[in-house]
Specification:
This protein has 363 residues and is an alpha+beta fold. The chain is built from 13 helices and 17 strands. Helix content is 34%, strand content 18%. It holds the Pfam family Actin.
């Protein structure tokens, strides 16, 4: 047995990766190509070396939340596991890797095969990111029921857990995530100001810097005075700063006939056994990139509070670091005395084949 494991939260936009003994690295899960440097692809965090971020072209392994471009994903994984990023020897290090809820059996099968046969992994655990988030919350709050809200790049999932197990009848999916928000922002700005339809990378940065609680790149400039001159190209963001994230609460604004997050939370909880409703309302946890929008937690709380019955308490927790919350759950899970019983070994794979993986991993 080893003292550390390797955790890969394989998100559709960013992969969170690292050993359980360290802080995770956040690596873009894509390959990018730039107009100014056509010959060189930028893999993962190599994008930091790009001199011109305008006109960057994404090649993504995920579409609509599922891994379908294996060549791209394998290239990114090779980069992640290399000396340039976060090197690992799978011969003596267990691997925890996340995959989407209700993942297609063909994708599950391919992932198992790649890690056992190509990467020669000795111990593997495939698991949903929401499972890791729930485990994280349960270990730090000591509760029996948790409602996990995962709002990421491709979608938003609301998943109820009762005594550590997914209650599948209550799971809700909303087809709005960071990708929809960025694409809608591109369309609005292109209609109102200048054509930015080819500037996905730049507009995604603008969305994060303008709407998130932490400014990570550049700055937001105040309105110019009458005697001041503009020194650089500027996008003027007015009501877009709140109308874009509003799609998480009203997907119908862009023609998606689905309920918003607070209503979906109530529908999800009401689909669960009556005796668990109160506990679920008291243990709602938000994580994922969209949870970083300023005021997101308060908005969800206020609307859920207004929709829930008055005699129930409502508690909504925003993960301390929404982007890496599931990854951190992997650290807690690795410390579980039963951890290795959840995993599959290469020896088991060679003896019993892929069918055992379907039995072992609750996807």
């Amino acid at each position: 047995m080893t003292d550390i494991c390797y955790i890969l939260d394989n998100g559709a936009y960013n992969a969170k990766v690292g050993f359980s003994s360290m802080k995770p690295k956040v690596v873009p899960n894509c390959i990018m190509k730039a107009k100014s440097e056509r010959r060189r692809p930028f893999i993962g965090s190599q994008i930091d070396e790009c001199r011109d971020a305008s006109g960057l072209f994404y090649i993504l392994p995920f579409q609509k939340g599922f891994l379908i471009n294996w060549d791209t994903q394998k290239t990114v994984w090779d980069f992640i596991f290399s000396k340039e990023c976060c090197p690992v020897n799978f011969n003596d290090t267990p691997l925890i890797i996340t995959e989407p809820l209700f993942n297609f059996s063909s994708i599950q099968e391919a992932m198992t095969e790649i890690f056992f046969e190509e990467y020669e992994c000795q111990t593997l655990l495939r698991i949903n990111g929401t499972d890791l988030a729930e485990y994280h919350y349960r270990k730090t709050h000591n509760n029996d029921c948790t409602l996990v809200v995962d709002t990421g790049y491709s979608y938003t999932y609301i998943v109820p857990y009762i005594k550590g197990k997914k209650y599948r009848e209550g799971i809700k999916r909303i087809d709005v995530g960071g990708k929809v928000l960025t694409n809608h922002l591109k369309e609005v700005l292109s209609y109102r100001q200048l054509n930015v339809m080819d500037e996905t990378y730049v507009i995604n940065q603008a969305k994060e810097d303008s709407y998130y609680t932490t400014i990570r790149r550049g700055f937001l400039r105040d309105i110019l005075g009458p005697d001041e001159e503009l020194e650089q190209q500027t996008l003027r963001l007015n009501n877009e700063r709140f109308s874009i994230p509003e799609l998480l609460f009203h997907p119908s604004d862009v023609g998606i006939p689905q309920m918003g997050i607070p209503e979906a939370i109530i529908h999800c909880i009401n689909s669960c056994p009556e005796e668990n409703i109160e506990n679920l309302l008291e243990n709602i946890v938000l994580y994922g990139g969209n949870a970083m929008f300023s005021g997101f937690r308060d908005r969800v709380y206020n609307e859920v509070r207004s929709l829930a019955l008055d005699h129930f308490d409502v508690n909504v927790t925003l993960a301390a670091n929404p982007e890496t919350y599931a990854w951190e759950g992997g650290k807690y899970l690795f410390r579980d005395p039963d951890f290795y019983s959840f995993c599959m070994t290469r020896e088991e794979y060679e003896e019993e084949g892929k069918s055992l993986a379907f039995e072992r991993f609750d996807i």
